[in-house]
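Protocol step 4 of 6: record predicted structures for both targets in the notebook before any analysis. Target 1:
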Amino acid sequence: MIQDFFRKDLSDFESYNAGKIDYKVRLNANESFNNLGAATRRKLGMVIEDSIYNRYPDAGALQVCNLYAKYAKVESINVMAGNGSDECIQIIAHTFLNTGAKVAIQSPDFSMYGLYTKVAGGIPIEFPLSEDLKLDVEGFITMANREEVKIVFLSNPNNPTGGTITRENIIKIIEGCRCIVVIDEAYFEFYGETIVDKINTYENLIVLRTCSKIGLAAIRLGFLITNNVLMEELKKVKPPYNVNAITQSIGSVVLEEPKIIYKNVERILIERKYLWEKLSCIDGIKLYKAEANFILVEVLNAKLVKEQLLEQSINVRSFTSGVLENCLRITIGSREENDCLLNNITLGNDNNM
């Protein structure tokens, strides 16, 4: 049987299902509600028209890495581009994990850390957040060292809670954990705090960034930022030509004019404040302070509320177990999208509170 050739350790895996995308209001995937402006899209059209399609792209994505390095205020030699930050996570796992090696992650956190760990043959060790969704930093460090993990993955701000770990505590983790420490700053733009300035101070530090939350989710462009020693090791595993020419070109156009990003983020932060204030006025909804482009809320019956929203073609992310039971993660939308959600989630809660 052909199944005899399958990996036994992946027998219980389920393929990642991103879900339908044809909902009228999509507030489930932490995308930006802002598309690029008309002038920028026209410029992109010309760049794409002039692209060379019969040749491989720049294997090192040097132009877009140089531009992102300027944006992130680091040296270009410290930046690697990936097919989304997902691929950067995968590269890290395959670079440093042997079969049976352990990885420490907080729970809940971005699911791809555990998935890529398992695909690489590693073992994810989950450290649960407290009831109020905070990380016990000292306990986490103790666990990581006791388990002799090779990698720590932490998103900051956290996805899906929106919570943060202070810079002081991030440094404690980097200094205290005897392993590679990966800080995923996918939501950096909405938080404003970073540890990227410490990549050359700590030999075990890797920082991840992405363009997916700032208006470029469609092109799949992420970045890995680290010191020269780790970078040389990671390059051994990075696939050649992993970022296609069109993505490199589009990313370069936008990064050449970072004001496009700043304006996008500003609009999202305005809407985050608006949505937070409106949700806080609804009885029966508990809000968790968010520093990302989404808000986590807790209701009495998240499954039912989500079903009612779906009936109105409004999609949000729901959770049904663990510390996030009865929580909804709501991506910040446009004013029209946010009002549509507010009108309908109010009805949903009134029926169930």
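Target 2:
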Amino acid sequence: MISINEAISIEDYNVIERLGNIIWREHYIPIVGEAQIDYMLKKFQSANAIANQVASGYSYFLLYYDMIPVGYIAIKKHVDTLFLSKIYVLSGYRGKKIGKTALEFIEVKAKNQRLKTITLTVNKNNRNAINAYKKLGFDNLGSIVTDIGEGFVMDDYKMVKTL
């Protein structure tokens, strides 16, 4: 059974930090390298960084499969769109409709706020995610390169789904 709960405590943020450390290292080191992942985990996915993001308007949610935390999402409302900042699931739990359930949850959140679109960015070399987003109705709006400091950049595509 899949469930989604809002992350509201430092304990929740610590769980997300641990999940991020596993998922990001496994999935993204082959794409962007270990040095960039070390930097990004510290800057964006430490419990303190998550707490700061929540204080600035982001909402984090833990994804559970049979009551086991197996992933997480982060969203933030922008003017007329809901920005999907993060959606990650442990590799051993992929293919169990957790990501699809999470995206349906996000759509409901966006519609309840009367938002017109959901936007996200995805690494240009993350082919599986790009294909999954396309299947779920997202369109590729083109390239976006973001300087994240320390000489690192995120080389992404911006994608949007109209609701």
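Step 5 preliminary note on target 2. The longest strand covers residues 139-149. DSSP finds five helices and seven strands in the chain.
Proceed to step 6 after PI sign-off.
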